[in-house]
Amino acid sequence: MRTMMELHQSCSNLREYGSEQCLLSKPDGSSTFVQGDTSILAGVYGPAEVKVSKEIYDRATVEVLIQPKMGLPGVRERAREQCVRETCEAALLLTLHPRSSVTVVLQVIHDDGSLLSCCLNAACMALMDAGLPMSHLFCSVTCAISKEGQIITDPTALQEKESRALLTFAVDSVERTVLMSSTTGSFSVQELQQCIALSKKASEQIFQFYRESVKRRYSKIK
Amino acid sequence: MAAGFKTAEPLEYHRSFLKENCRPDGRELGEFRPTTLNISSVSTADGSALVKIGNTTVICGIKAELTTPPSDAPNRGYIVPNVDLPPLCSSKFRPGPPGEQAQAASQFIADVIESSDLINMEELCIEKSKLCWVLYCDIMCLDYDGNLLDACIIVLLAALKNAQLPEVTINKETDLAEADIQKKQPLKINRLPVGSSFAVFDDSIIIVDPTAEEESLSTALLTVVTDEEDRLCAVHKPGGTSLSGEKLQHCINRAITRNKEISKLVNKVTESMKTAK
User: Fold this and answer.
1) Which InterPro entries match (chain A) (predicted)?
2) Average per-residue pLDDT for chain B
């Protein structure tokens, strides 16, 4: 069952973003998330069987795989996988499925900046589509600080290359606090606080979008 | 009796200490373990250092090799850090290809080197598009007791400060590189990035410099890297429970004081090497 591609024109500084759910037949949940030209396809399998060496006695084991557009996954992908995995572990109610595994597979379709943010957003939509129990939703926003000190949210690849610092934050939907932070480049404490405030503001739009797209999807089922 | 309680209910055991604002090993919540630094221990490497933060022991060796610069940056050399977590350091790590923690740590160190502008890469270039230095930094953990990232940053900084590179000239006739091993130059280090790691317990209590047990029981981990001008080079929190704004600010302040302590230590050790010679 495919839902219509929903595109949202944002009024603030986020690029045009959109998502589609339930497009793959084999995974328990799947989604794509598009931010400008950056596009990620996510698939979730779970709760499923887990290898005895990886099983945890009182909770589910979360595995994340990020496949780049070209080549084999390297060290950079592993670092991103760690960020996505720990964010998902905090959001999912893992103790409801002990000795099981939840596998999130993310395929990079196109990278035009804000890659980690798009991965996290796609992962959240796919987990929702799979119907896995979560204590809160999460979304992610990337901020780039240009050489002149200007802060740009949701930068393109060109803007990222010309920036002096890049900050990615994941925000939770219930208390709007920072769940995950990953930064490159150097910046001052004031700039960090400004970026966090901007990310929280931008995350409002994305959470609103999640709500509308899920509402629209389930109102069609009679 | 306490040992039995600790094995059966490790979280409750730690909580009973945190209620009294201290930890099982007697430290305060904001206290780092004693840090010791030893440099130039590996004679076959161009630069080396060994650091111990409590029981966590990390060693770094730097090998400099000559190579052609990458085509997209013909006037720069490069640094390749690699963090290795062998089965020796902890029963958590199995033999075989590097696991996720080692790879994520390698990527983090590479990002810190670039973010903090530690070394001017243009200085590593000998001749544009023809010859440059590549510094292979192998960071190996010998004993894993938590707080790996802080130790890796300190050991890398100390090893780079200790590294001596021979002077290289290109012979105009043969077009070959000639290294003069008698003349050695130390590397110019621009910044002193120092990391501080924190663990969040039960969503509200923040402890500094967690041991391996505290890391496994914590709900989130945070590493803040600052340089000597109080600028942030990295705020690394790979997920876990959320952190409020004031707690984050508190962590950043603690990281800034830690930077001063470690800079003093590294400078003292480097100076002592010079006077020893």
Assistant:
1) ExoRNase_PH_dom1, ExoRNase_PH_dom2, ExoRNase_PH_dom2_sf, PNPase/RNase_PH_dom_sf, Ribosomal_Su5_D2-typ_SF, RNase_PH
2) 91
